[in-house]
Amino acid sequence: MNKCRGIFKDKRGIVGIEAAIVLIAFVVIAAALACVVINMGFYSTQKVKDTINRGVNEASSSLQLDGQVIGKTNDTRHLTIIVFPVKVSVGRSEVDLNANTTVVSVEGRICLLDIYKGVINESSVGLEEDPESLDDVISHIFSGQQQRPSAYCIIYNDDDDTILENFEKAFIIINLGNYGFQEYDKVRIEVRPGQGTSLTVSGVVPGGLPEDDYVSLG
Fold first, then answer.
1. Domain boundary assignment for the chain
2. What is the pLDDT of residues 58-72, one digit of tens each?
3. Could you tell me whether strands 150-156 and 116-120 are parallel, antiparallel, or unpaired per DSSP bridges?
């Protein structure tokens, strides 16, 4: 009888060890699954954050108006040149204004779509780094193409590339060519860079337009 009791005790010990091994295995598996779930949660959170950031970037404009919208009339008192300054919006570091990524359109009594030709380097058109007057800039940029609608960008305090950065300032200069706005015409200009929503500039041509002079588009 004593021998039988010893045998039963040994079997109970073996069963206890087996149960402990199974329990440890369950704990290890549960820990591994928990690690997978936590990692997936971190990954999902990061993807959601990236998606939100992209959505915010696409929903906000990367450019903002940085001054007054100026127009110039010709000798028939039609507004044929429009100039306005832009800069990088708050929260942005840079904007590429390359002709391949940027679109400039003019709408109103006349409609000119995608007339943007790119960023002008001052030295390439014979301009000084700091031109003395807007007339000087216009005459150099549109020399020989006064009749063709076109738009250019000129960046000051730049490093001779097409990237507008926080410490730089750009001017969008639009030549309406043979077209032109008359008194009290509504003007709507859209500048759409490669990223973000477009910058929309609106104004009304004032009455009593002078001949070959500058006016403000309020």
1. 1-59, 63-216
2. 446 789 998 899 999
3. parallel
